[in-house]
Amino acid sequence: MMDLDTGQITLIAITLFAAAVNGALGYGFSSLTVPVALIFYSNRILNPALVLVEVALNSYVLLVNRSSIRKIWKRVLPIVFGLIPGVIAGSYFLSMANPGWLKLITYLIVLPLILLQAAGVRRPIRSEHLIGVPFGAGVGVLYSTTTISGPPLALLFNNQGFVKGEFRAALGLIRMVESTVTATAYYFLGVYTAESTGLLSSIVPSVAIGIPIGAYIIRRMNAETFRRICMSFDAWVVGFGLSKVFIELGLIASPRAYGVWLAVIMIDLFLLYGFFTRGPEISAAALAVDAPDGGSRLMHQKTPTITQDDLPA
C-alpha cells in the first residue's frame, strides 16, 4: 500500500470536499482546492494537475448546456479572444516566477474577490463588447497562474440578463477554452513534470466520488446557505494561507502574521451575520440553478436575471 504524506492526505480531502461542492452547486472546485493545496504545493506543481481535471469538468458542463450555446456565443466571443494571449502570458509567468511570491500574489488576488462576493456586491456591466477582450486577457492571466477564474467572471456577469441555461453555457464555454488553452500552453512551456501529473492519482478519485455526493447532499439542504458556508471556509483558508506566506517570505514575523488571518475571520463573520439576518431577502431573490446532472434545484425565481450570488466562487 502506498504511503501518503500530509500533503497528499490533505489534497485528497480538500479535492473530495471541493468536488462535493462542485457537484452540489456546479462550481467552486478550484477556488476551494487551490487555497488549501497551496499550503503544501507550489502553483507550478499544483496547477498542471488541476487544469487537466478542469478540462474534463468544463467540457461536461458545456455538453450539458449545449442547447444554449447558440444564444450566448456572440456575447462571450470577445472574452474568448482575450483569453488566449492572457493564458499564454500567464503560463509563461508561471514557468518563471518565484513559487513563494506567486503564492502571495494568488492569495492577494483571490481574497478580496471572495469577500466582495460574500458581501453581495452588485456591479452591473453594460458594455460587454468594449470590455470583453481586455477582461478576457486578465482572466486568462489569472486562470493560467492560479486555475481560478470564477470570482471575476461572477463580477462581470452580474445583472447581465442571462437565464440559467444561457449563463451556465457561457460559463462552460469560457472555462472550457481557458482550461484547454492553458493545458496546451503548459505542455509547450514544459510545465508538466512527473510530480505534477502524479497528483492526478490523488485528485481524480476524489472528483469521481465527490461530485455525486454533492448532488445528493444539495437535494436535502438549502443551496444558498450551503454556498455561503463554503465561501466562508474559502475565505478562512485563504486568510490562513496568506499569513503562512507572509512568514515564509519574511515579510511579517510570527505570530503577528496570524493577525491577518484573524482579520479575515472577523470580516467574514460580520458578512456572515449580515447574510443570515437578511436570509429571507436572499431566498426571495435566488434563482433555479441547473444541477450538474442536467436537472435543477428549485429556488424561488422572481426575475430571469442572474445575480452575483448565483455565480461561481
UniProtKB/TrEMBL annotation:
Keywords tagged on the record: Cell membrane, Membrane, Transmembrane, Transmembrane helix, Transport
Keyword DNA repair part of the UniProt annotation: no
Subcellular location field: Cell membrane
Pfam family, one: TauE
InterPro entries noted in UniProt: TM_pro_TauE-like, TSUP
Keyword Protein biosynthesis: no
Major location (coarse): membrane
Membrane topology: Multi-pass membrane protein
Similarity-based family: Belongs to the 4-toluene sulfonate uptake permease (TSUP) (TC 2.A.102) family.
Name of the protein in question: Probable membrane transporter protein
Originating organism: Candidatus Methylomirabilis limnetica
